[in-house]
């Protein structure tokens, strides 16, 4: 229940985007996807909220809530982060570049 | 208990992979991580299918634990080194569980899988063959396990430490943010609980903060060290991580983990629930 769901881009059956705020994105390095990165979701105060491991294609996914979030990735090829503003329910796509 | 009794570094682990009477055990909920590559020689333990009773909501009983460890080839005098994904949540849970059944020589690998992987240390797909042992467990040590009535009675009298994220604590989210938010139980926290997210006890790479940093953290958050403490989260695994920090690293004496945690408490009829930020919160969302 607390492990990372399958991090492919397809959302699990039953995900209701009129109710849930879903963050999806890719970890990249020089344009290439980075699999196996540790992707951390931090809330508006910088507090850790969740962490998943990116898929072989660099994808990650979080179920969040409205607010400002930081997505931070740690990988063997470096770290990076990006901010995401979630205005309400729906799908929010982003990218984290590591170097 | 102290840090050197309870925790080993990745460097130490790497040098002791073949040490006698030492068994590395990877603990995960999703064991595909182990199958894709694990610390050489490590055996796997499945948090859900092996440590939980398949029917009742409870742990496997003493005889079940003996059978499990015997089948893994773990003996009473082995030193068990636990590690796993999710910042060692399930490994910390297994650590607490091994202590519950009286296994003395158990340690946690600092940083777990994450640090091991980020350091680029060796992973292996070969599954070790260990011969069957004859493990003998003790009766559960309930001095480290809290049950629901005790938790209700602890409101306002013991330290209740809710180690979930601030949004789960306030009732905004019902589960960690990498999971669908479909749970039916009520959101919020146990009245009088302090919110000290488990993650404050860990560095970004998954290692534990220093004893000084940990002591300062819990002091600042208002933990009264003259009182007993009960830690909880959603299903009891993140609170095992905090139980480990308080009881095993800092040596606080009366600390229990409430494994029923929010999925039990938030579904009880008639118990008090508080929503919104906690008393130790400094104006967070």
Automatic annotation (TrEMBL), chain A:
* InterPro entries referenced in this protein's UniProt entry, alphabetically: DUF1416
Entry's Gene3D superfamilies? Carboxypeptidase-like, regulatory domain
Q: Which Pfam families match?
A: DUF1416
Question: What is this protein's name?
Answer: DUF1416 domain-containing protein
- Give the taxonomic lineage as stored in the record: Bacteria, Bacillati, Actinomycetota, Actinomycetes, Pseudonocardiales
Automatic annotation (TrEMBL), chain B:
Q: Which PROSITE patterns match?
A: RHODANESE_1, RHODANESE_2, RHODANESE_3
Q: InterPro entries given for it?
A: Rhodanese-like_dom (IPR001763), Rhodanese-like_dom_sf (IPR036873), Thiosulfate_sulfurtransferase (IPR051126), Thiosulphate_STrfase_CS (IPR001307)
Keyword Zinc assigned to the entry: answer is: no
Keywords on record: Repeat, Transferase
Indicate the segments forming the Rhodanese domain, all copies.
18-125, 154-274
Q: Name one Pfam family in it.
A: Rhodanese
Q: Which reaction does it catalyse?
A: thiosulfate + hydrogen cyanide = thiocyanate + sulfite + 2 H(+)
The name under which this protein is listed is: Sulfurtransferase
Q: Which GO terms fall under molecular function for this chain's record?
A: transferase activity
């Amino acid at each position: 229940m607390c492990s990372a769901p399958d991090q492919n881009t397809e959302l699990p059956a039953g995900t209701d985007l009129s109710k849930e705020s879903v963050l999806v994105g890719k970890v990249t390095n020089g344009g290439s996807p980075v699999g196996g990165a540790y992707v951390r979701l931090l809330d508006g105060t910088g507090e850790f909220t969740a962490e998943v491991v990116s898929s072989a294609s660099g994808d990650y996914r979080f179920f969040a809530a409205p607010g400002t979030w930081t997505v931070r990735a740690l990988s063997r090829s470096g770290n990076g982060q990006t901010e995401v503003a979630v205005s309400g329910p729906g799908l929010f796509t982003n990218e984290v570049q590591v170097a | 208990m102290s840090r050197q009794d309870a925790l080993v570094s990745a460097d130490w682990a790497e040098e002791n992979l073949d040490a006698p009477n030492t068994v590395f055990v990877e603990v995960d909920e999703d064991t595909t991580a182990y199958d894709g590559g694990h610390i050489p020689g490590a055996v796997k333990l499945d948090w859900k299918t092996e440590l939980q009773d398949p029917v009742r909501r409870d742990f496997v009983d003493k005889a079940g634990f003996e059978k499990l460890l015997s089948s893994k080839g773990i003996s009473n005098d082995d030193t068990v080194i636990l590690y796993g994904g999710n910042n060692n949540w399930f490994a910390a849970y297994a650590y607490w569980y091994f202590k519950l059944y009286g296994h003395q020589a158990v340690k946690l690998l600092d940083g777990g899988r994450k640090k091991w992987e980020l350091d680029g240390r060796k992973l292996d797909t070969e599954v070790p063959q260990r011969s069957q042992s004859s493990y003998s467990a003790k009766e559960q040590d309930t001095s480290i396990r809290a049950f629901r009535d005790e938790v209700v009675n602890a409101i306002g009298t013991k330290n209740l430490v809710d180690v979930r994220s601030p949004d789960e604590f306030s009732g905004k989210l019902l589960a960690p943010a990498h999971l669908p938010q479909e749970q039916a139980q009520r959101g919020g926290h146990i009245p009088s609980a302090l919110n000290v997210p488990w993650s404050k006890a860990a560095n970004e790479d998954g290692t534990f903060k220093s004893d000084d940093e940990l002591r300062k953290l819990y002091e600042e958050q208002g933990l009264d060290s003259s009182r007993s403490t009960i830690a909880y989260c959603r299903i009891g695994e993140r609170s095992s991580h905090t139980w480990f920090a308080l009881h095993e690293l800092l040596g606080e004496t009366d600390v229990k983990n409430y494994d029923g945690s929010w999925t039990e408490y938030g579904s009880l009829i008639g118990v008090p629930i508080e929503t919104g930020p906690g008393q130790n919160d400094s104006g967070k969302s």
